[in-house]
Amino acid sequence: MSVEPAGGPLVELRDVNKHFGALHVLRDINLSVARGEVVVVIGPSGSGKSTLCRTINRLETIDSGTIAVDGHPLPAEGKELARLRADVGMVFQAFNLFAHKTVLQNVTLGPVKAKGVKKSEAEKTAMELLDRVGVADQARKLPAQLSGGQQQRVAIARALAMKPKVMLFDEPTSALDPEMINEVLEVMIGLAHDGMTMIVVTHEMGFARRAANRVVFMDAGSIVEEATPEEFFTNAQSDRARDFLSKIL
Length: 249
Ligand code: ADP
Ligand code: MG
Known about the structure:
Helices cover 39% and strands 24% of the residues. By secondary structure, the protein is α/β, with parallel strands linked by helices. The strands form two sheets. Strands 6-7-8-3-9-10 form a six-stranded mixed beta sheet, sandwiched between helices. A four-stranded antiparallel beta sheet has the order 2-1-4-5, with helices on one face. A hairpin with a 2-residue loop joins strand 4 (64-69) and strand 5. Adenosine-5'-diphosphate binds next to strand 2 and helix 1.
C-alpha cells in the first residue's frame, strides 16, 4: 500500500461521470492528486481534458461520483461554493484578462472583491506576484499593451493572488507564439519547484519531463494510462497512448 501524505489527497475524484446530452464526456474518472504533486494531463482533442479541469473548478456540474478539494466535497452552493472555488486557481488557453483594467487591477480585483482584502495590501501582494512572474514593470499598462507571453504570466499572477491550494492550467501555452512559450513554462516550472500542487493540461513534453510527477493520458473520456513522464514517453503501455504519442512527438 502506498503511504498517503498527511491530510490525504488535495484533489480527489471518485467515479466521476459527466454527459453533454448523449455524449459521455467523463467516464468513471478516478484521480487523486497529492499535496505538492504536479500532474500533467495529455490526450487527443475532445478527450475531456478541459471538462475535467472545469469540473474540478466547479465550472461544470457532474452527473455522478464525487470531487473533493482538500477534503471538501461537491456539491456546494452559495458562499461555500465561492470559498471552495477560491482554493482552485485556473489559467486558460486564451488569456482572459479584463481588457479595460490595468495589469495591477487585474491581479488585485479578486482578492479585494471576493476576499475583502484591503486595497493597499492587495496591491503589495500583487506587485510581489508580478515580480515573481517577471512583469512588475508592466503593472500600470493595459493587457493589450503586453505580449501574449506577458499576458499569460499576468493571468498566472492573478490566479496566485487568490492563494489557491491547487492550480489548474488548461493548455496555457497553446495560443502563444513559439518564442513566448518558454517564458510561461519557466514560471510554471518555478511554481512546481516551490511546491504548488498543479494539474496541467499540456502537450509540452519538456515541461512534463522537467516538472511532472505523473502523466495522465485521457482518451474518449477515460483515463487510459498513468505513469511517470519517463515511463510514459519511453514505454507507453496502451495502443491508444502509443498512437497518440506517435502523432505528437
Ligand atoms: P479536450 O479539452 O480534451 O479537447 P473537452 O473537455 O473540451 O476536450 O471536450 C470533450 C467533449 O465534450 C468534446 O466532444 C466536446 O465537443 C464536448 N463538449 C465540451 N464542452 C461542451 C458543452 N458545453 N456542450 C456540449 N458538448 C461539449
Ligand atoms: Mg481542451
